[in-house]
Amino acid sequence: MDSVNKNRERPVGMFDSGVGGLTVAREVMRNLPNENIVYFGDTARVPYGGKSKETILRYSRQIVRFLQQQDVKAIVVACNTASAFALEEIRHELDIPMIGVVKPGAKTACEATRNGRIGVIGTKGTIASGLYTEFIRKLRPDVQVIGKACPLFVPLAEEGMLKDPVTVEMAGRYLAELKEQDIDTLILGCTHYPLLRSVIREVMGEHVTLVNPAYETACSLRKLLEKTGLQSDANPGLQKGRHRFFVSDAPESFREFANSILPVDIEHTQRINIEEF
Ligand code: DGL
């Protein structure tokens, strides 16, 4: 294999605080089937949502160092909180491209809204950062953005309580405010939230478009790889072990969860000590 091809066959790195980023990995697997993924879930330190910018930056730098050691050709920050707090700073420190999920989500919502009223739900950190509002206003200064932090959604998703009555109750409380605001588009601004999509849909009703930034992120990744000449031409099909999964704790429960939502079964999840990076 010549060096150009070898470069293209390197995997794409992806990370989140836990299982949430799997919703992005799922879209990349579906839409960029030739790409191999190295995924890291920071299961020992989840949740990220209520932590400071400083801490998220430190965690993200450690994970990026680990992913670089895995020889990835690009990195997708499959976490809104890390996209909001760490992406801009870290991308300038790297010699490989890096994208996040916030910009693609903002773009899709701007295209979807008809009445110019967009809701954003996310972690405390993501909502406080105001980054969705910033990106949306750049594209559509006329749009009203209403943000709401829903911190308990992350543990509910991590626990697999995707349709539990407790989740329905919490969704009713969190989303009541947004329902009153007459939004017609709602961004699921945390990569864990698409896992709760059916409950959110039930509470918000059919007339509200739910935006999952994961799909648009996969499209942005495709464009980025094409632009930089890094897209894989190989067709690995269902070759075993082509995607690799790492976590900072509890690999077995992560693997079980991953196998319940990914289009391919993963055989092995490896635990690593991320504090060493
Ligand atoms: N899934 C992440 C996000 O998109 C982080 C959730 C958390 O760890 O609080 O923000």
Poorly predicted parts? none
> Tally the helices: what do you get?
13
Query: Average pLDDT across residues?
Result: 94
Beta-strand level of the residues, as a percent range? Answer: 15-25%
> What's the N-to-C terminus distance?
31 Å
Largest sheet: 6 strands, parallel
Q: Any idea what the radius of gyration is?
A: 18 Å
Strand order of the largest sheet: 4-3-1-2-9-10
Fraction of helical residues = 40-55%
Question: How many domains is the backbone divided into?
Answer: 2
Number of beta strands: 10
| SSE pattern | HEHEHEHHEHEHHEHHEHEHEHE
CATH class of the largest domain: Alpha Beta
Shape designation:
globular
**CATH architecture verdict of the largest domain:** 3-Layer(aba) Sandwich
Strand-pairing-aware structural class: alpha/beta
